[in-house]
Amino acid sequence: MTKDYKSFSSVSKSRFRKMAKELGYEQLSGINYIKQRDGWFEGFSLQASSYGNDFFYINYGISVPNLWEPFDEEINLKNLGYSLSHRLHHNSGQGFPNGTKVQIEESVDLAIEKYMEQASPWFNKINGLTDITEMYFNSTDLEENKLGEHDSFLCLKAANYGLFLFKSGDLENSLVWLKEAGRLYSEEEYLEDYEIDQKNTINNVIKVIKSA
To answer: By the 8 A CB rule, do 12 and 105 touch?
Structure first.
């Protein structure tokens, strides 16, 4: 089938305004949509098949702003990434049709239906950052009884969890997990520049917690 458009992002922008409006989302671009909650954002995004197939995926998830810039007040919405995410299930995982403009329009109605069935109930169970923090921990291989014994490949997850705890106001446990993350970063023989920045952020947050 020959596509009757050049850019999926461009052609989806006008067509997915319907879904954004019905579900109460802000349209950041043709593929990214968000809704502000108390201290976090829920959102969904469109992902065209990387192999040029005639279908696309819809991912939905949670974004916590400035997790790694916890002292910044300004929020760059376009740089928000998902801390926890899922994919809408449709057609045995193949995706939503986007071979033509008409198919994309039909996919919008189907996506709204699937979103109400799958994504909305998941979002509605989340009451705040404390729930998100627990959900993040449960999505990792971190264990409370392995503090001081985690492998170094879990350094980023330990740091993320510590920062989630900091964001949710649990300073005592945040300090515990940020120290664990700092230990794991220190075990690495070589750190990339971005990892050095991460380690510096951890140390800065630890200083703030200790001075609180």
So the answer is: no
- The whole-number pLDDT of residue 171 equals 98
Q: Which residues of the chain have pLDDT under 50?
A: none
Distance in Å from the first CA to the final CA of the chain: 62
pLDDT given at position 108: 96
Position of tokens 């264990």? 143
Within 8 A by CB and 6+ apart from 64, the residues are 39, 40, 41, 83, 129, 132, 164, 167
Contact call for residues 106 and 112 (beta carbons, < 8 A): no
Cβ count near 205 (within 10 Å): 22
Exposure string for 91-113, b = 16+ CB within 10 A, e = fewer? eeeebbbbbbeebbeebbeebee
Looking at the DSSP bridge assignments, the partners of residue 83 are none
- The secondary element (H helix, E strand) that includes residue 15 is helix 8-15
